[in-house]
Amino acid sequence: MSVAFRREGDDEHMEPKFELPIPAGPNWVTVRGLRLTREKVAALEAVDCDAMAEEDAKKHKRVLRYWRTRLATAELRPVAAGDVVAFGCRVTYRLNGRDKMVAIVGDDEADPADGRISFSAPLARAIMDAAVGEMIDFAGKADAVEILAIALIDEE
Predict the structure, then answer these.
(1) CATH 1.10.10.1590 fits 89-152, yes or no
(2) pLDDT tens-digit profile of 134-147?
(3) Which pTM value belongs to this model?
(4) 137 φ/ψ angles, rounded to the nearest 5 degrees
């Protein structure tokens, strides 16, 4: 009989389970980001995996490995000077005639809906090192972003 018609079991045909992808580049964190990562690891470690179904336990352990890795590689960044846009700053800017505000934080702390973008996001990369009043090229448009204000993030 041909090997193509042989069926050993369903396990060999299942999709492989990979580790959660780690963002490329450094793992910069704010004080708040480091605290949130520690809290996440503690909460995940407190869960009893023995009471879970096997697949749920595997998924939980995969998530725990991700967060342990993120905690182990976390680089707490020094407080920015605040004179130019940098990691750990809250920036008010004008784009397409609308004033907006974002905080530049680490990858795991980023939440665009809450006004927090990763330092690796295209907008953050474009406005890094800009001063108040400076016009920045963005998304293929010259002078698309104007920096209106820079403040330090002062939250723990």
Answers:
(1) no
(2) 999 998 888 889 99
(3) 0.80
(4) -75, 140
